Amino acid sequence: MTSLLDVRDLTFHYADRAGPVRAVDNVSFALASGGSALGLVGESGSGKSSLALAIMRMLPTNVARYDGEVWLDGQELLGMADGLFRQEIRWRKLALVPQGAQNGFNPVLRVGEQIIEPLVVSGAVGKREARARAQELLAYVGLPADVYLRYPHELSGGMKQRAMIAAALILEPPVVIMDEPTSALDASVQTQITNLLKRLKQDMNLAIIFITHDIALASDLCDDLAVVYAGEIVEIGSAEQVLLHPSHPYTQRLLASIPRLHSDTLPQFIPGAPPDLREPPAGCRFHPRCPLVFEPCAQKSPPAFEPADGQMARCWLIEDGLG
Ligand SMILES: Nc1ncnc2c1ncn2[C@@H]1O[C@H](COP(=O)(O)OP(=O)(O)OP(=O)(O)O)[C@@H](O)[C@H]1O
Ligand code: SF4
Ligand SMILES: [Mg+2]
Fold this sequence. Notes:
It contains ten helices and twelve strands. It is of the alpha/beta class.
């Protein structure tokens, strides 16, 4: 069965005076169909936003390397001409709510005008119909109708985030990438936004890529989880597999770092710091911080092992049947 979105060996490095920054390295994953969410979870600087930008082809000027394949509904996107990608794919089939999206609105334009812009530019409908569609979406994301006429500074952070989600949905894309959509919000607003995303997934049959540093939050929304470490996906599987039977020592440490109610064990912090992606460690990139490091880890990069059906982890322990 072909997947809705299939990312294969995606690699994206930035050029830097000190050498390439290896922000995304040989990343592969798939979203089978709509109505599901994949969580991309990892520490700050692990390359999550870079991966989102690489999929969206929203690249900065200092690209050192950009290759791999991104298949959307049977169509390969990286080899596509720029104009065609802009016209047919970006926002129409694949949308992004960027990190810090609350600051993404133009302060001098009314919110509604900014939401309908891509729909009006597409020429598919007139302004009146576009406005009706935007107002429907604003209501759906839980905002009052008058938000359409307000300026961005007249909205709270949570309202701006909802309005940004409405803006991403205006062309009804089947896949939306949400980059840390709740991280700047307080806990109660965070829950409201997560509940909204759950509804979107079901009601609109949307496929969501949910980027976060918070694995507990991702587990609330996501059907599948991918754990990102230093530019690579080190583990991927169903949320149940990753949460209940984590195979990679980094995933295990990430889970052990979550504070738990009604438990005598204290959260354990991961020793050391994530590596500098200009010079990631040889072999397994986690090896300088891994409590289980052994002979092959610093020499050879672990390939993708399959500890269980549908679960992937890059750790030499799995080859030895110990993972
Ligand atoms: N334009 C750029 N030029 C050079 N390096 C960059 C650029 N943008 C990001 N980086 C570097 O790429 C690496 C990955 O950054 P990225 O923003 O993708 O991480 P992230 O996982 O999204 O982090 P956070 O959780 O803090 O948002 C970091 O080392 C960052 O400093
Ligand atoms: S490959 Fe080695 S260093 Fe890397 S996570 Fe597995 S045991 Fe630890
Ligand atoms: Mg980021």
